Amino acid sequence: MKAEPFEVKVPEADLDDLRFRLANTRWADDLGNRDWRYGVEREWLADMLAYWCTDYDWCVHERTINRLANFRVVIDGVPLHVVHVRSPNPGAVPLLLLHGWPWTFMDFQALIDPLSDPGSHRGRVLDSFDVIIPSLPGFGFSTPLTQTGLAVPRLAELFATLMTAVLGYQRYAVGGGDWGAVISLQIAHAHPQQVIGAFATIPFYPGLDLAAITDEQYASDEQWMLARKAETRDLISSHFTVQSLDPQTLAYALVDSPAGTAAWLWERRRAWSDCDGDLLSAYTRDFLCTLASIYWLTRTIGTSLRIYWESYRFDPFRRLHDRTPAVEVPAGFAIHPKEVMLVPRSVAAAGTNLQRWSLMPRGGHFGFAEQPGALVEEFRTFFRPLRPQMLPGTIFATPD
């Protein structure tokens, strides 16, 4: 298996088709919805779609993407797009960053240069990383999705193979958010002799039983988590239900309509970000349009939904061994105040070799895109003492 250089080149005809569809959106009536109580408010969406149609320039962002080191490889019949940015500095730690849904690899864009070349970004050269960011199968440029059955354990093996057999790293670090957190912790669980540490924004580790977590397990200084869970209960159920039960039915509507694709994606960004209902306070218009464009132009909004159906029939938290803790390598978590997937520290400590637990001052579920500078510092700090463990044969110490 060999990763081949890849360049994004969207045909002009596809961009013309996108603009035509946006200009001819068939609008649903929207009565009494100024506060978004029924979902995305029409006036806001119309303004955003007008920008996407007439002001947004995909080609500018395509050039930004192509300035990254993009590759494509097929592993076990699964096509993968991978951004692989090597540090100019010796001794860089390979860092596999994994995104979730509805994310793309571009959620990590602002972290790439500071992590790979910290000396040019107010950091220490000794904190350098080689940064590896794949697109999940069926997402964006990891197309076409040619297989079913790509649940979390299979994805973990796919990315472990990418790091070792394709890219040639013997040892590496992992991290991510949303599904990327689940997959990265599964890799750490399955391959502790390869992974030096895992850092994620949600502690969804193998063996976790979300239904068994009680209110009493939240410490006195974690009561805000219970309030946030109650606040977000209705914000995380709609997509989860349909994408776990019958994603293909929704796929036909979304793949046919860029307005529908954008509404589905942008509503989640608004609901799960630290933005107080003003999405444009957290992201630029161009960021949001690039997000929607990647899903739309690659026709992958439908296949991206499949990870829910596959994983929740297989059990996304399935353990592959009974050693304790389930994640033996050092683990760290950055917990954002507007996160929608919250687990008390005591539970995270029971299932992982917990070495760092950072309560972030700002940010939501998409913390990597919302607060990239803070996450860069978290990665630098967490992995700094683990860098000597890049040497083969290291035995990891677990907490008493």
TrEMBL record:
This is Epoxide hydrolase. InterPro entries: AB_hydrolase_fold, Epox_hydrolase-like, Epoxide_hydro_N, Epoxide_hydrolase. Keywords: Aromatic hydrocarbons catabolism, Hydrolase, Plasmid. It comes from Mycobacterium branderi. Transmembrane segments: none annotated. It holds the Pfam family EHN. The keyword Hydrolase applies. The keyword Hydrolase applies. One of its GO terms (molecular function) is epoxide hydrolase activity.
